[in-house]
Amino acid sequence: MFATFASNEAGDRIRLLMKAYHIAVVGATAPVGQELLRVLERRSFPVSTLRLIGSARSAGKSFRFRDQSIPVQELTDRSFDEIDIVFFSAGGEISRKYVPVACQAEAIAIDNSSVFRMEPHVPLVIPEINAEDARRHRGLIANPNCTTAVTLMALYPLHRAFGVRRTFAASYQAVSGSGAEEMKMQNEGRKIMHLPEFRASVTCVRVPVYRAHSVAVNAEFERPVSVEHAREVLAKAPGLELVDEPQNNRYPMPLSVAGKDNCEVGRVRVDCAFENGLSFWVSGDQLLKGAALNAVQIAELL
Ligand SMILES: NC(=O)c1ccc[n+]([C@@H]2O[C@H](COP(=O)([O-])OP(=O)(O)OC[C@H]3O[C@@H](n4cnc5c(N)ncnc54)[C@H](OP(=O)(O)O)[C@@H]3O)[C@@H](O)[C@H]2O)c1
Fold it and tell me: Predicted confidence band at 14 (pLDDT cuts at 50, 70, 90)?
């Protein structure tokens, strides 16, 4: 069953100019799925119809989208019939089994799980960094790990300016996130930044913060780096805000980025342990840039 939308004026105008899409969300009842609905609505994504999918446990529940109540349907092999884009957000096992079913039904899958991220033929995309990779998709695009996404939002612009050689990082992850595998930052970072030599030594820790991840990064660069030049680069980076006034107690905090699209970077210092070293602290909402927002941005590229 589909829900069809006639919604706010701005959204209607956008849908008139653009094709509107048949969208499905697998895992619609969980934190990332719920955030996906809010992001699709907030960004006036051209949704023609929306199908919310969960397990048998949730069949019959309903959620609001653009002033309509939409029932959740149980996931089946027919869930992707007549769907253009499907967001997978129900964990690895569901993605492993149903992404191929969605591709078979000619839906484009955007997958939040880690199952397909390192497959060579699957683009792994952060739109601010490697949007062009999305063009070579074959029906599936992977969304990066949440801590990797938040870190690379600050590391990549610095890499463009100074050439990153290696990083040491410690993540402070919110309880609403899931997973802590520490090799993801190196492996996914190499693929997203097209930087096969990139080395990352990472320690992930779960902290008593409800929402938003933070990462302390020590990075070594090929070229000399000054704090002033690094601040200039970071201040101009898309999707990122420089919050770096320690004298006024202003620096990125999970509390200030929770519910916010942009990541924040601050505490930018020379790292004396490296020749061309820089330390910084980056915070970002792992349900938004680390999941739902990035997934919708990928859909917007399509
Ligand atoms: N949480 C985060 O901060 C975060 C951040 C970035 C990425 N991610 C990734 O995003 C994905 C979603 O994470 P999440 O924390 O929102 O949810 P989750 O706990 O990984 O998954 C729960 C969702 O999966 C559905 N589900 C479970 N078994 C199912 C089945 N047999 N058939 C159909 N649906 C089934 C659940 O539906 P029911 O309610 O019906 O059981 C629910 O909607 C995961 O791959 C996760 O690794 C999570």
Answer: low
Two structure tokens written together for 153: 């939002």
User: How many angstroms separate the alpha carbon of residue 140 from the centre of ligand 1?
Assistant: 18
Phi-psi region of 118 (alpha: psi -120 to 50; beta: other; left: phi over 0): alpha
Place of tokens 């805000």: 241
146 in active site = yes
Q: How far is CA 113 from the centre of its chain?
A: 11
Residue 127 — very low, low, confident or very high, per pLDDT cuts 50/70/90?
very high
**Ligand 1, atom 15: closest residue by C-alpha:** 31
> Measuring CA to CA, how many Å separate 51 from each of 5, 65, 77, 123?
12, 11, 14, 25
Q: How many residues does the chain have?
A: 302
Nearest residue to 87 via CA among 6, 124, 141: 141
142-173 tens-digit pLDDT: 999 999 999 999 999 999 999 999 999 999 99
* 294/302 Cα distance (integer angstroms): 13
Cα atoms in the Cβ-side hemisphere of radius 13 Å centred on 131: 11
Q: Are strands 47-54 and 3-4 parallel, antiparallel or unpaired?
A: antiparallel
137 noted as active-site residue: no
